[in-house]
């Protein structure tokens, strides 16, 4: 069914691709068990965890940074300190303080400090995402990676995730708030996507609240030619997400630098997990190549009766 897609994958530095339809594998290429770096897909993992903690009343999205005593090296202003955890979750804090673990693109799009008030403007900022990790550690008595293992990885039967080896905290010189990188295999990443496709349910157990799945993947903020943004999920807007491909309505994805993504397309009952061995310096599948990959996948799937 996916002959053109398979040929194309051999022309780009793609290392693994797994496609599920209605929970069954319909295409795979590459090593499904290798634990690749996840880069910014980590943010969607934390978003899912926050959903479990909100349901258990351990995590209140209305809390402000001032209330929590969250600050940083250069100091937050009185206005910045009024940002809520909801503002951080939706990347709308208005805080342009230097952050750790940023890509060149993130640094380029960051507006000048104090330009926007909390909630006023969307900007994909690692300060928000890393500070949210600090808030998690303050409010929930469980390290992020251990919580992911217990609350998500084990319930959905992830086979390769090792929390002590595949999750760590990464401090930096720019901020007191460290990043929280993950490694995950392609087959385990696809399980994460399938969990969302199933509205948080797995084999009769409600692992994530269905309401959280719906709200966290809603198009809350306009993200230009990248579509829209929810609770640390990229959301398609009128089919827009990557160049030169139109996604089905309601699609959303976790994305990481170098070409990593976990795409959920509820309209097709499909999950797509793509990986690149970014441990190799300079190895990357760019946005245009991803668009072409997805265009071929959708065309090949339609030709096989999936549409």
Q: Which features would summarize this protein structure in a list?
A:
307 residues, alpha+beta, Beta-lactamase, 8-stranded antiparallel β-sheet, two-stranded antiparallel ribbon, 11 helices, 12 strands, 15% strand, globular
What does the model show?
The protein is α+β, with helices and mostly antiparallel strands and 307 residues long. It has one domain: DD-peptidase/beta-lactamase superfamily (Beta-lactamase, 3-Layer(aba) Sandwich). The chain is built from 11 helices and 12 strands. The protein has an 8-stranded antiparallel beta sheet, with helices on one face. It has a two-stranded antiparallel ribbon with strand order 3-4. Helix 1 runs antiparallel to helix 11 and helix 2 packs across helix 7. The longest helix is centred in the C-terminal third of the chain and has 17 residues. The relative contact order is 0.19.
Q: Nutshell version of this structure?
A:
This protein has an eight-stranded antiparallel beta sheet with strand order 2-1-12-11-10-9-8-7, with helices on one face. A two-stranded antiparallel ribbon has the order 3-4. A two-stranded antiparallel sheet has the order 5-6. With 307 residues, the protein is an alpha+beta fold.
| Outline | globular
CATH superfamily: DD-peptidase/beta-lactamase superfamily
The CATH topology is given as Beta-lactamase
How would you write the strand order of the largest sheet? 2-1-12-11-10-9-8-7
CATH architecture: 3-Layer(aba) Sandwich
Low-confidence blocks of residues: none
CATH class: Alpha Beta
Order of helices and strands: HEEEHHHHHHHEHEEHEEEEEEH
- Main sheet record: 8 strands, antiparallel
The Cα radius of gyration reads: 19 Å
Provide the number of structural domains.
1
Structural class: alpha+beta
Kindly report the oligomeric state of this protein: single chain
Count of individual helical segments? 11
């Amino acid at each position: 069914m996916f002959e053109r897609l398979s040929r194309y994958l051999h022309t780009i530095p793609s290392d693994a691709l797994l496609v599920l339809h209605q929970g069954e594998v319909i295409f795979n290429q590459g090593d499904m068990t290798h634990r690749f770096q996840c880069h910014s897909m980590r943010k969607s993992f934390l978003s899912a965890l926050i959903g479990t903690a909100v349901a258990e009343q351990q995590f209140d999205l209305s809390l402000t940074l001032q209330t929590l005593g969250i600050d940083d090296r250069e100091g937050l202003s009185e206005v910045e300190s009024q940002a809520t955890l909801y503002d951080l979750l939706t990347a709308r804090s208005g805080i342009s303080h230097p952050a750790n673990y940023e890509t060149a693109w993130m640094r380029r799009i960051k507006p000048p400090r104090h330009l926007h008030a909390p909630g006023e403007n969307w900007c994909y900022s690692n300060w928000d995402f890393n500070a949210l990790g600090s808030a998690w550690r303050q409010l929930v008595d469980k390290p992020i990676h251990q919580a992911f293992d217990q609350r998500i990885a084990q319930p959905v039967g992830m086979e390769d995730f090792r929390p002590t080896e595949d999750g760590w905290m990464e401090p930096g010189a720019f901020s007191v708030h460290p990043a929280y990188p993950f490694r995950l295999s392609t087959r385990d990443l696809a399980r994460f996507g399938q969990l969302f496709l199933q509205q948080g349910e797995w084999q009769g157990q409600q692992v994530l609240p269905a309401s959280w799945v719906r709200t966290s993947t809603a198009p809350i903020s306009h993200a230009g030619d990248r579509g829209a943004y929810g609770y640390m999920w990229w959301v398609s807007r009128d089919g827009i997400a990557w160049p030169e491909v139109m996604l089905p309505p309601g699609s959303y994805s976790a994305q990481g630098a170098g070409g990593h993504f976990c795409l959920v397309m509820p309209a097709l009952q499909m999950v797509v997990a793509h990986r690149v061995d970014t441990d190799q310096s300079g190895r990357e599948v760019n946005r245009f190549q991803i668009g072409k990959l997805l265009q071929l996948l959708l065309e090949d799937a339609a030709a096989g009766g999936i549409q």
